[in-house]
Amino acid sequence: MSRHASAVRARLLILGGGYVGIDAYRAVMRQLGRQVRRGQVEITVVNSTPYHTFHGFTGEVLGGVLPLERTLTPLRDLLPQARVIEATVTRAELPMQRVHVQDQAGRTSTLCYDHLLIGTGSRDPFERVPGLREHGWRLKDSRDMQAFRAHLAQRLADGQPTTLAVIGGGFAGVEMAAALRERLTRAGVPGEVHLLCSGGVLDCLQGRFGGLAAHARQALQRAGVQLHLGRRVTEIRAGEVRLEDGASLRVNEILYAAGIALSVLPGTEELPRDDAGRLLTDDFLRVQGQTRLWTGGDAARVRHPARAGDCPVNALWAMKHGMWAGHNMARSVQARSLKRFSYRGLGQVAGLGRGDGVGELFGVPLTGAAAWWLRLLFFVWYMPSKRQGARAFAEMLRPPRRRGTPASALQPTGG
Ligand SMILES: Cc1cc2nc3c(=O)[nH]c(=O)nc-3n(C[C@H](O)[C@H](O)[C@H](O)COP(=O)(O)OP(=O)(O)OC[C@H]3O[C@@H](n4cnc5c(N)ncnc54)[C@H](O)[C@@H]3O)c2cc1C
What's the mean pLDDT in 99-116? Predict the structure, then answer.
């Protein structure tokens, strides 16, 4: 319980130590830092792991350019004034303003709140793709990523020919395919990388930025990635990807990057959601119809403030949602009026291997080295730990090792 229970005026409970959770914490601290340090406001963050995972450099981690630990930062370093609880949230009792959590040892506890922020993100869509859970590598959880890295490193060290399939032609899939292709080449191991997409490469860039999508497609082809466009994957089996048209592809390893699914926290079933399960928000990042419930990021559907439709689902928007939700939560505690979410975006960028990329910044298209540098600087700037960012920057500029990089132990580095 609280160190200053009698003096506590507000208990802020943040579920999830991802982008939403961290930026919400920072926004609250900017406004209520003094009250938090005096024990008048309590911030508690619950996360299933003790560290934050930065997914932006997934391609570089797979490609052996960055160690996995570069993307993991202990939450206690990032949230020094918060009570950080490593546990899984199992149930909410919204009318009682409390949630139940369970730690890895099976111990349960109950946390009460005045304001609750749901920033628990998304999960892999197991039910959408039969066989994904059993035969596909997932990369959202750093423990899965570590297992894949170790497995791949072993294959390459043994010189085993390796055929890899990446499913998903969005930013994550494209970056992974490019990075893995580079890694096989560097390791001098015979092998193939296949990229399978139900649509085209980077369809999200079609229309105004169609030229960027075409650049990405050509760069992947030049690098030797085999493209299977307009081909939906219906099932994953051991060493085999099955496609909608009845064809199948024999491969050694299958990586999945084609979409997300949402889990509904028991006790929150009554909250308004869209068909995908995302919580609906008002213009202040509150869950619609609620005054003490906040959300953002992958878990939420937030209307874009400047154009028709919703905010994109990615880390930058999750950060901005978290920032706004935290800011408004703090203003609620101070009984001040709330600020309407008004962030308009910055751009988007994808890496296509060392020194190449595509992107746009405020609508200005970029390709090649300019896009690669933009992405590097952008990611380093937005990493939650500046020290990790500086290390990543230096490592990205270092010439890559020719043979496979040994898999390191899963150990987050101090922030
Ligand atoms: C492989 C991969 C690559 C990506 N690459 C990019 C990229 O290059 N650029 C980009 O912008 N975006 C990228 N994304 C997307 C980006 O990571 C997400 O949009 C972003 O993480 C969403 O932030 P969030 O805070 O909503 O969720 P998250 O960052 O996922 O944080 C949610 C947190 O909640 C915790 N949690 C969930 N359920 C519970 C529970 N019941 N109890 C306790 N804790 C719980 C999780 O452990 C997690 O730490 C990538 C995603 C993946 C998976």
Answer: 97
83 lines ligand 1 (CB under 6 A): no
Indicate whether residue 170 lines ligand 1 (CB < 6 A): no
Is 18 a member of any domain?
Answer: yes
Q: How far is CA 353 from CA 27, 44, 179, in A?
A: 35, 39, 5
Whether residues 95 and 179 share a domain: the answer is no
Q: Based on the domain organization, do 106 and 205 belong to the same domain?
A: no
Whether 392 and 51 have beta carbons less than 8 Å apart is answered as no
The atom number, within ligand 1, closest to the CA of 57 reads 8
Nearest atom within ligand 1 for CA of residue 139: 1
The verdict on the CB of residue 47 being under 6 Å from ligand 1 is yes
CB 9 within 8 A of CB 42: no
Please give the number of the atom of ligand 1 that sits closest to the Cα of 47: 44
In angstroms, what is the span from residue 18 Cα to ligand 1's centroid?
6
Tell me how far apart the alpha carbons of residues 357 and 223 are, in angstroms, rounded to a whole number. 13
Nearest to 415 by CA among 37, 84, 28: 84
**Closest ligand 1 atom to Cα of 88:** 42
pLDDT at 94: 98
**CA 57 – ligand 1 centroid, Å:** 13
Asked if 306 and 264 count as a contact pair (C-beta separation under 8 A), the reply is: no
Give 408 Cα–ligand 1 centroid separation in angstroms.
22
Query: Which amino acid is it at 345?
Result: G
Task: Report DSSP letters for 345-414, one per residue.
Answer: --EEEEE-STT-EEEEETTEEEEHHHHHHHHHHHHHHHSS-HHHHHHHHHHHHSPPPSSPPPPPP--PPP
Question: How many angstroms is it from 40 CA to the middle of ligand 1?
Answer: 30
- Longest Cα separation, the chain: 67
Is residue 99 located within the same domain as residue 132?
no
pLDDT 10s digits, 62-90: 999 999 999 999 999 999 999 999 999 99
Q: Does the Cβ of 111 fall within 6 Å of ligand 1? A: no
**Digit-coded pLDDT (tens) for 191-246:** 999 999 999 999 988 778 889 999 999 999 999 999 999 999 999 999 999 999 99
- Which ligand 1 atom sits nearest the alpha carbon of residue 297? 26
Is 404 contained in some domain?
Answer: no
